[in-house]
Amino acid sequence: MKYRVTIGERDFVLDIDEANGGRRLAIGDEPIAADVAEVRADRAFNIILGGRSYTATVQRAGAGYAVAIAGRVYELGVEDERTRALQKLVPSHAEAGELAIRAPMPGLVLKVLVAPGQPVGKNAHLAILEAMKMENDISAPRPGTVKDVRVTAGQTVNKGDVLLVIA
């Protein structure tokens, strides 16, 4: 699967191919010889890259991730192909007025991550929708304040149902 990764002002395309029981990494078209294994349940990974071993911990940080390696913390924005494709289907939104966030497909609401009155930034995670046994992040297309949450965890929704409203 391809991911767009942003570190500061730099963008990369990271391709992770796990076919045939192995793992192949590439940044852009450049293959990377790396071995990655999760070593602890708290999202710690051992990475062997260029013959050197690194330990990295990964945590959600706002709309992205914080990755700590060798005492340095890197803020990463990560967007997968599926999320990019879904966002292309949604028209761009003005910065003012109410905006209904609708289910892009039928599914089951696994989690609602925000509450009424909560401020959210662009791309902030709002809810997780399970569809066809895959978890899909529902993200804010623009900054605003959550005005209304119309679903709860465990609720089944149809394509186009309003999940929440941002003002």
Give the N-terminus to C-terminus distance in angstroms.
34 Å
Query: Rg from C-alpha positions?
Result: 18 Å
How many domains is the backbone divided into? 2
CATH architecture of the largest domain: 2-Layer Sandwich
Share of helical residues: under 10%
Low-confidence stretches: none
Mean pLDDT: 85
Strand order of the largest sheet: 4-3-2-1-9-8-7-6-5
The helix/strand order is EEEEEEEEEHEEEEEEEE
Characterize the structure shown.
The protein is mainly beta and 167 residues long. It folds into 2 domains: 2-80, 2-Layer Sandwich (Glycoprotein, Type 4 Pilin); 93-166, RNA polymerase II/Efflux pump adaptor protein, barrel-sandwich hybrid domain (OB fold (Dihydrolipoamide Acetyltransferase, E2P), Beta Barrel), CATH 2.40.50.100. Helices cover 5% and strands 58% of the residues. The protein contains 1 helix and 17 strands. It has a 9-stranded antiparallel sheet. A hairpin with a 2-residue loop joins strand 6 and strand 7 (52-61). The longest helix has 9 residues, at 81-89. The two termini are 34 Å apart.
List keywords for this structure.
167 residues; mainly beta; Glycoprotein, Type 4 Pilin; OB fold (Dihydrolipoamide Acetyltransferase, E2P); 4-stranded antiparallel sheet; 17 strands
Task: Please render the helix and strand layout as text.
Blueprint: E1 2-7, E2 10-17, E3 24-27, E4 30-32, E5 34-40, E6 44-49, E7 52-61, E8 64-69, E9 72-80, H1 81-89, E10 99-102, E11 107-112, E12 119-120, E13 125-131, E14 134-139, E15 144-149, E16 156-157, E17 162-166
Antiparallel strand pairs: 1-2, 1-9, 2-3, 3-4, 5-6, 6-7, 7-8, 8-9, 10-17, 11-13, 11-16, 12-15, 13-14, 15-17
